[in-house]
Amino acid sequence: CGTANNLASALGPWRSAEALAQGWRAAPRRALNLAYAEGRFGRLPFLEAAGFGAFARAVDRADEKGLKGIEAGRAAFRAILANTEAQRVALRVDGAAWEGETLLLEVMNIPLLGPNLRLAPGAEPDDGQLDLVLLPPGRREALLAWLDAPEQGCAPVLLRRGREIRIDWPGGPVRLDDTPLTEEAMAVTLGLEETVLPILVPRALERAA
């Protein structure tokens, strides 16, 4: 019953809190991967996404201004993205190296983040993979246009998948879910725990066939 309900949407559609509760006794279970980020801040968990760059900055800005709601969140992201500078990042996805410039970097455990933005449409909460989202500078205008109607198509981003992602972050805003962490340069490892969280998914929540 939150603002965007990204995690509930990742598990399946549902009609109401009442219908959800009525289905608990007979509900099948679905697994939810538990993700972690490890760096100089220690080892911390996250469920939705770990963010670096433009969207992490937008979360900070929304918090500073007390902005609430999906449209306010998208507006804050749009304003930050229009003016943010690209950063050169080196990373490894399950050992495979990538290096290049990006305006944002999101490591996602589910398809949606923040104000209902489906940046990783192929992500599933129980697939044993993390989805890495990158935005090269040349795709800035395309993503800004997409933000006007994100429900009508796929985001113009680069996607990679893996169970473990290692990032040499040059510095700038970092967040885990909605919690800002630091802006220091550092190496960060993101991965999935061996154990999963069992979730009751009543019939009203199950995906349509």
Descriptive terms for the model:
alpha+beta, 6-stranded antiparallel β-sheet, 5 helices, globular
Spans where pLDDT lies below 50 across 5 or more residues:
none
State the strand order across the main sheet.
2-1-14-11-4-5
Distance between the termini: 24 Å
Q: Let me know the largest β-sheet.
A: 6 strands, antiparallel
Q: Find the count of extended strands (DSSP E, 2+ residues).
A: 14
- Work out the helix count: 5
Characterise the protein shown here:
This protein has helices spanning 6-11, 17-22, 54-65, 70-83, 140-146; strands spanning 29-39, 42-46, 49-53, 87-93, 96-102, 104-108, 112-113, 117-118, 130-134, 158-162, 164-169, 174-176, 179-182, 186-200. With 209 residues, the protein is of the alpha+beta class. Strand 4 and strand 5 (96-102) form a beta hairpin. Helix 3 (54-65) packs across helix 4. The two termini are 24 Å apart.
